[in-house]
Design brief:
The chain is of the alpha/beta class and 637 residues long. The chain is built from 23 helices and 19 strands. Among the domains are: 62-288, Rossmann fold (3-Layer(aba) Sandwich), CATH 3.40.50; 299-415, 3-Layer(aba) Sandwich (Rossmann fold); 556-624, Serine Threonine Protein Phosphatase 5, Tetratricopeptide repeat, CATH 1.25.40.20. Bound molecules: asparagine. It is an enzyme of class 3 (hydrolase).
Length: 637
């Protein structure tokens, strides 16, 4: 172990998860502090007229950026010829006039429009957490009633997110409610290694009407997308955030239009916005975000009903059909006294059609408890668990398009939980909170016993402990903390996560471990710094490479500042510094505050070594297309 003052940490962490182990002597586990991090520099107040009402440059107020993609739906519809239809170019104009959705004064005073040079950019009033959410609206043409949406439209949304991924903290998709559950499900599979929130929302009544649900839904979606690193495709409606591939539209006439029957909400927006972090899906990867727009269109949904003819089933399963979601009765049942029907199903699965068994019931899962369920397994169907038909259909479309996989691999993938779309039985895998010896001791001394209080203790104590383990590179301690249900993504009182600390310390293996166990590269501490900023500051080259490989990037502000930083590094002949900023994504051609580039600064002082180094760095970068090679550390003790 690297630091003797933390010698007991592993045993302490072990004691947390194993009731039989005695608690060691308490060790000094004070968490690592943010290492003199500077507040983010705010952008220039270029067209400022009155400084009194503007936050100062050193204000800790953080600005988050959200891209809103407006695809259509009721939220932006008006009545034409007595029917509702989407209206182009009307939404932004209307939002500009709504003070809860646009702070015109702030926008004007801070030169928002000059800075973003984008006329569809708006800004929310200051949030409770002192955050400003700046959002830009990208409006599609034509705007669509979601009944008109096709697979191509999903691809377009996916590509636009991919194109803009590094420029925004989160994404909101405005969409009609009729097929929103399908789009949300499809995007959840198409977005591979997602690290930022994508929130779909819309409304039942147009935002232009006096009484409507559009304003609340859009505001809630923006607040969530801008303030929380929830790496999921979600759906926000009627004060609840749901996992996108778990929802279904259940009501055509109520503001409460969606249900997530088999998974509790990821967040509720009541007096406060409460995130249920234990439910939030974690990517567990060191791979970069990408969107797979390849989808197989030869898929379909078939709902069983009493008396369905085998001719109907046969016709439905004919080529080019490649994947079918069969909506069965109850817990996945079908008639077992209909050999004609079962034979058609068996013929299709034998010929390579993948058929998924999903229940027609709103809630619950398929099983093989009945003979009428077992016959479907015998016919070669794959159990869809508690997936919604919308999720199963889009998953089929996504999996069937994976041309490199053979049929068996595709079937296996269909039975696996890819994005939290189905429940897996974790019985026995998780330690009960009250089993933890550590929590028991604390709970006893505080005389608490209810689950909520135990959870509160865990949530208050474990993030700083995890940070302390990260400080000394103690992976075993982190494992033990994880076993007791600790969320390794949570930050301490300064919002500093174990990944921030490990990045500061340059513990490469631990960084790898954390990324493989749900840590996010997009976490920001209270100073707005990400793990990448920390790794650059403390010059841990391999950590920078790994974080970049996982999709970490500098913010727009940081990239703006990079020119000046590079010039000063060039002036002081700091080759290591230049290299690390370049690895972290800084543009070596970026001008500093006085219009000079790093290379010009080096030339001006006649430093040939720095000039040659910068030229080399630039040519390496253009050869690799900006891709950084990271060599994984060998696994082992
Ligand atoms: N509430 C809505 O958005 C319904 C509309 N027909 C749509 O799906 O576009």
């Amino acid at each position: 172990m690297a630091d003797s003052s933390f010698d007991n940490l592993t045993s302490l962490a072990r004691a947390l998860s194993h009731p039989k182990l005695e608690l060691s002597e308490p060790s000094d586990v004070s968490p690592t502090r943010g290492a003199q991090l500077q507040p983010c520099r705010r952008r220039k107040l270029s067209s400022c007229t009155s400084l009194e009402s503007v936050e100062p440059l050193t204000s800790p107020t953080a600005e988050a950026r959200v891209l809103v993609i407006n695809t259509g739906g009721t939220i932006g519809m008006t009545i034409h010829d007595n029917v509702l239809a989407p209206t182009a170019n009307a939404l932004v104009k209307s939002l500009r006039k709504l003070p809860i959705l646009h702070d015109a004064m702030y926008a004007q005073q801070t030169g928002l429009y000059d800075y973003y040079s984008y006329e569809n950019t708006l800004v929310l009033p200051l949030s409770k957490d002192k955050k400003r959410i700046v959002y830009s609206i990208l409006e599609y043409s034509p705007l669509l009633d979601s009944s008109n949406m096709t697979t191509d439209d999903w691809g377009r949304i996916g590509k636009d997110i991919e194109k803009n991924y590094e420029n925004y903290d989160g994404f909101v998709i405005l969409h009609g409610t009729d097929t929103m559950a399908y789009t949300a499900s499809a995007l959840s599979f198409m977005c591979e290694h997602l690290g930022k929130p994508i929130v779909l929302t819309g409304s039942q009544v147009p935002i232009f009407e006096m009484r409507n649900d559009g304003r609340g839904n859009l505001l809630g979606a923006l607040l969530i997308a801008g303030q929380f690193v929830i790496p999921e495709v979600c759906l926000y409606f009627y004060n609840k955030l749901h996992r996108g591939n778990r929802v279904t539209k259940v009501d055509a006439g109520s503001f409460n239009a969606f249900s997530s029957p088999n998974l509790a909400p990821l967040a509720t927006a009541e007096v406060d916005i409460k995130i249920n972090w234990d439910t939030v899906w974690r990517p567990n990867t060191t791979a970069k975000f990408q969107v797979s727009t390849e989808l197989n269109r030869n898929v379909g949904l078939l709902r069983l009903f009493p008396g369905i003819t085998s001719a109907t089933v046969k016709a439905f399963l004919q080529p080019p059909m490649m994947g079918v979601v069969l909506e069965t009765y109850g817990s996945g049942n079908a008639p077992d006294n209909r050999p004609d029907l079962l034979q058609e199903l068996k013929k299709a699965t034998d010929s390579g059609v993948i058929i998924i068994n999903c229940t027609q019931c709103l809630r619950g899962t398929v099983s093989t408890s009945y003979a009428t369920g077992m016959v479907l397994m015998d016919a070669g169907l794959i159990a869809g668990g508690d997936m919604t038909p919308e999720a199963a259909l889009s998953k089929l479309s996504y999996v069937l398009a994976k041309d490199k996989l053979d049929l068996d691999a595709k079937k296996k993938l269909m039975g696996r939980n890819l994005r939290g779309e189905m429940s897996v039985d974790l019985a026995g895998a998780k330690l009960c909170l009250s089993d933890s010896r550590f929590i028991q001791v604390i709970a006893k001394s505080l005389s608490v016993s209810c689950k909520e209080e135990l959870e509160a203790i865990r949530d208050a104590l474990t993030p700083p402990l995890a940070c302390a383990a990260a400080k000394i590179g103690d992976i075993e301690a982190l494992q033990a903390l994880k076993e007791m249900g600790t969320n390794l993504c949570l930050g301490d009182y300064d919002g500093r996560t174990p990944l921030h600390i490990a990045a500061c310390e340059g513990h490469l293996k631990l960084v790898e471990y954390l990324l493989g166990h749900g840590a996010t590269v997009y976490a920001k501490d209270r100073y707005g710094d990400t793990p990448l900023c920390n790794a650059v500051r403390f010059r841990h080259k391999e950590v920078v490479k790994l974080l970049r490989q996982t999709g970490a990037h500098f913010s727009r502000e940081k990239l703006e500042e990079a020119g000046t930083e590079l010039c000063s590094l060039a002036a002081t002949r700091d080759l290591e510094g230049l290299e690390i900023w370049s690895l972290a994504g800084a543009d070596l051609r970026k001008q500093g505050y006085d219009g000079q580039t790093a290379i010009q600064v080096a030339q001006a002082v006649g430093n040939k070594e720095v000039v040659a180094f910068l030229v080399q760095l630039m040519s390496n970068k253009s050869k690799s297309g900006g891709v950084i090679e990271f060599t994984a550390t060998p696994s082992g003790p």
